[in-house]
């Protein structure tokens, strides 16, 4: 017995990932009751972002300018390319501060069963960059899932065609992880990749 | 190293209750990547709702019309008034289908320490209704918190001035609850309010 506009708002809030009927209702009432200004700000930000945010012409991450801040920065090493699946992967790598090169965002991963081939994840653009740029290293940071591994393998082959050094992020025991709770796949990888010290 | 528009969107998403930095980022990327249409719909729904949703003139719940659908309905018993703290309480009572009267929404509860007195929770409006309408019963459904109890007590006194029957929702063991996990306050109430069978 809610009014149509409130119903609309509740159902619209459900487009957000992880928001079900109950949380959507809670959010709608919260905004109406306590933060109408914030809600209008959110409305504006959504509109602006959806209208203006496109993709970086070099790395395919989200950007409202032709080149994203990382690709446009003179402080970043343009010859090291780290390939990730999604823009949120960039965020987490940037947070660590370990990498000073540039990225290439696949916006997905190879998945022939879903009709996602090399073209869909922008590999022609990456290949063009490998041809034209003096690339020193291609760091593959796809997720360790089945499709991620397949994508990594494909990228590896591609880079080898251009005699470019390829590397992958190490797999093993996470910092602060306990052996007791580790899955056997990770433990197997940690054994295989063990280092002499 | 996100672009300003994406940063704006992420920080704007944090107005939603229960959404922190990490979820806001996940939501922003999700919308940009997979549901721009849904995001624009959400933007529109927010704008519409914040602009047009006000309060019902009779019961103070959210409504874009002068009277909310419940107050305007001829099928509802206008002489039974259930007093609740917030519009979401109406939603949960309506879901149960047990109540066919009308509501009065306090939009808060008495809390002198925060400067919330009878005027702030609309009690003059309720008093006017008790005076003018032929009210048969006032059902108090405030939450069983300290402020909720104080509010209930105040309402009780008010209704008694007009010789109106007052009742409160029963407190006790919830359906499907187990004694073992019950807090002692609830258990005490359940003992005090025990019924002969």
Automatic annotation (TrEMBL), chains A, B:
Family: Belongs to the RecR family.
Protein name listed in UniProt: Recombination protein RecR
GTP-binding is among the record's keywords: no
Molecular-function annotations in GO: DNA binding; zinc ion binding
Entries under PROSITE patterns matching the protein: RECR (PS01300), TOPRIM (PS50880)
Toprim domain ranges (all copies): 79-174
Positions of C4-type zinc fingers: 56-71
Protein purpose: May play a role in DNA repair. It seems to be involved in an RecBC-independent recombinational process of DNA repair. It may act with RecF and RecO.
InterPro entries cross-referenced by the UniProt entry: DNA_Rcmb_RecR, Rcmb_RecR, Rcmb_RecR_Znf, TOPRIM_dom, TOPRIM_RecR
Gene responsible for this protein: recR
Domain of life: Bacteria
GO biological process: DNA recombination; DNA repair
Keyword terms, alphabetized: DNA damage, DNA recombination, DNA repair, Metal-binding, Zinc, Zinc-finger
């Amino acid at each position: 017995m809610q009014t149509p506009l409130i119903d609309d708002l509740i159902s619209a809030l459900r487009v957000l990932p992880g928001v079900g009927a109950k949380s959507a209702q809670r959010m709608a009432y919260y905004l109406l009751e306590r933060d109408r200004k914030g809600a209008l700000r959110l409305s504006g930000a959504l509109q602006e972002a959806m209208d203006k945010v496109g993709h970086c012409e070099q790395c395919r991450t989200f950007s409202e300018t032709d080149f994203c801040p990382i690709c446009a920065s003179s402080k970043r090493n343009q010859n090291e390319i780290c390939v990730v699946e999604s823009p949120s992967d960039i965020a987490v790598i940037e947070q660590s501060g370990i990498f000073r090169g540039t990225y290439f965002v696949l916006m997905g991963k190879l998945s022939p069963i879903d009709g996602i081939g090399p073209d869909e994840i922008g590999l022609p653009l990456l290949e063009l960059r490998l041809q034209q740029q003096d690339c020193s290293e291609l760091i593959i940071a796809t997720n360790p899932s089945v499709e991620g591994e397949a994508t990594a393998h494909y990228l590896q082959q591609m880079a080898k065609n251009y005699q470019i050094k390829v590397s992958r992020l190490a797999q093993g025991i996470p910092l602060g992880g306990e052996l007791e709770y580790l899955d056997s796949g990770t433990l197997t990888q940690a054994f295989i990749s063990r280092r002499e010290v």
